[in-house]
Structures are given as C-alpha cells and as structure tokens.
TrEMBL record:
Record-given protein name: Oxygen-dependent coproporphyrinogen-III oxidase
GO MF annotation terms: coproporphyrinogen oxidase activity; metal ion binding; protein homodimerization activity
Protein family (similarity comment): Belongs to the aerobic coproporphyrinogen-III oxidase family.
Its biological purpose: Involved in the heme biosynthesis. Catalyzes the aerobic oxidative decarboxylation of propionate groups of rings A and B of coproporphyrinogen-III to yield the vinyl groups in protoporphyrinogen-IX.
GO BP term, pick one: protoporphyrinogen IX biosynthetic process
Region of interest: Important for dimerization: 238-273
Main location: cytoplasm
Keywords: Cytoplasm, Heme biosynthesis, Metal-binding, Oxidoreductase, Porphyrin biosynthesis
Organism: Silvimonas terrae
GN (gene name): hemF
Binding site for a divalent metal cation: H94, H104, H143, H173
Pfam family of the protein (one): Coprogen_oxidas
Broad enzyme group: oxidoreductase
Site (Important for dimerization) location in chain: H173
Binding site for substrate: S90, N106, V107, R108, G256, G257, R258
Length: 299
C-alpha cells in the first residue's frame, strides 16, 4: 500500500459520486482544477442552481506544507514543526427541496514527517445528515448504512464513532446538535496503513447507499414558502458550526488553503432571526424536539 493508491482511490470516489449526483440532478458539475503555492492542489466539482441541488460540491485535495498549522498539532504537540501532506475527498450537498436533507461526507489521510523521524500517518472522515423535516425512516436508513459499512472492522466502531459524531457536530453556543449525526472519526492509526485505508474506503463507498434512497423518497415532496423559510433559518446553524467549530475549516484557512474550496460548504440562501422558535406542535418544532436530540436511530 502507498499514498499513491490512496490518491487513486480518492479520485475514483470523487468521480463516482459526481456521476451519480449528476444523474440525479440533471446538470453537469463544474470542474475546477487548482494548484497550491506551497505544494499540491486539487479538483473542485461544484453545481449551483441545479435541478435537485441548490448548491453542492465534491472536492478532492492533495496538499502539502512545510510546517503543521496549530489546528493540526493541538492534540499532537509532539508533531509541531513537522512537514505534512493531506489528501481527501470532502462533499456537502444542499438540496433545494426542504424535505431532502443536507448531507456531508469526508474521508482523508494525513501524514506528518521529519528527517530522522518515522512518518506518522492517520486516517479520518465520516458522514452526517442534517434534515430540515424529520423522518424516522430516513434516520434509521442512514445510521444503519453507516453501521453496516464499518461493522467488518469490529462492532465497537459504530457506537464509538456515532457518539463522536454527536459530540463533534454539536453547536455548543446553541446547546443543540447540527443534525441527526452519523459517524465521525479522526486519528485512526491502530489498524495500520492497510487497515486504515480499507476503513476509509468502506465509508466512502457507503455514501451513495446511505444518501441516494433518501433523496429518491423525498425529492418530489411539495413545498412552499413556509418550508423554504424554515430551511433557510436552519441553514444558519450549519453556517455557524462550520465557521465557529469545524476543525476542517480552521485547518484549511490556517494552512493557506484555497478559500473558494474550503467555503464551498456554505449554503446559498440563509436566514437568521432574533430569539425565534417555531410554533408548538408544528412539523418544524418536531424536528427540534424529536430529531435533534442525539438518540439511537437503529434500536
């Protein structure tokens, strides 16, 4: 196994996901290839104002740097000063129909190295779902797919990474989850290079199975201004999390990453209100009371 094999897999994963989403959406994704002055580059694939997707992107990046930024060494102070390379695929899809949830997925490999020291390699990633209207069937399907994808590596991984996802994608300043979670993991090294690579392949390959059936169930649901207004309001929470708490956003900006690609995850239309709450008993209120609670969705 080598880093070049990881790169080849990530490029094929990006292409497979884009091809499927283009078929669902009916529009072709833009292809934006870029280079980074300090080393490496990437390919951003983006669609805006599509048939299904209001804004969405599937990014591949393979970037290098001379010194790890603070966000990467906060939990590994012994690696401060090392050179590094990171590669991964990251996607965020914001559909237009409020009944189709926003989704995020990321798989990545990170290597820190220095002359005279052994390379330190770890893997990370996961996927999570952010609905605007709650459907237990969708939550069950998404979490079951996540669990089944990583079950071959050990029964301990899903509950561990499900709990980590619930903790990570939590807006501390709002005291509420961003969505219904999924799985999240970082610093995965105990499986070795081959095992870690197999783990992120399992997660990446499960994404379409986890998300496409939900899209197909909900995309034809009728909606109006009320539903779009609620969607825009809840998207504000998504923006708040990405700009205030997300380590990936912070790492990208601190390491001199490409701003357009880093902020691709932002939804196109967002609203904020002062101290506002949906009417009691409404479908909107039910999202908050029954779905954004960090519960066990598989049972």
């Amino acid at each position: 196994m080598s880093a070049s094999q990881v790169r080849d897999y990530l490029l094929s994963l990006q292409q497979n996901i884009v091809a499927t989403l283009e078929n669902l959406d009916g529009h072709t994704f833009q292809h934006d290839q870029w280079e980074r002055a300090e080393g490496g580059g990437g390919i951003s694939r983006l669609v805006e104002d599509g048939g299904l997707i209001e804004r969405g992107g599937v990014n591949f990046s393979h970037v290098k740097g001379k010194t790890l930024p603070p966000s990467a060494t906060a939990h590994r102070p012994e690696l401060a000063g090392r050179a590094w390379e990171a590669m991964g695929v990251s996607l965020v899809i914001h559909p237009r129909n409020p009944y189709v949830p926003t989704v995020h997925m990321n798989v990545r490999m990170f290597r820190a190295y220095a002359e005279g020291h052994e390379d330190v390699v770890w893997f990370g990633g996961g996927m999570d779902l952010t609905p605007y209207y709650g459907f237990e069937e969708d939550a069950h399907h998404f979490h079951t797919t996540c669990r089944d994808a990583i079950a071959p590596f050990g029964e301990q991984y899903y509950p561990k990474y499900k709990a980590w996802c619930d903790t990570y994608f939590f807006l501390k300043h709002r005291n509420e989850p961003r969505g219904i979670g999924g799985i999240f993991f970082d610093d995965l090294s105990e499986l070795g290079f081959e095992g870690g690579f197999a783990f992120i392949r399992a997660v990446g390959d499960a994404f379409l199975q986890a998300y496409v059936p939900i899209v197909e169930r909900r995309r034809e649901y009728p909606f109006g201004e009320r539903e779009r207004d609620w969607q825009a309001y809840r998207r504000g929470r998504y923006v708040e999390f990405n700009l205030v708490w997300d380590r990936g956003t912070l790492f990208g900006l601190q390491s001199g990453g490409r701003t357009e690609s880093i902020l691709m995850s932002m939804p196109p239309i967002v609203k904020w209100r002062y101290d506002w709450h949906p009417p009691q008993g409404s479908a909107e209120a039910r999202l908050l009371s029954d779905f954004l609670v960090g519960k066990d969705w598989i049972g």
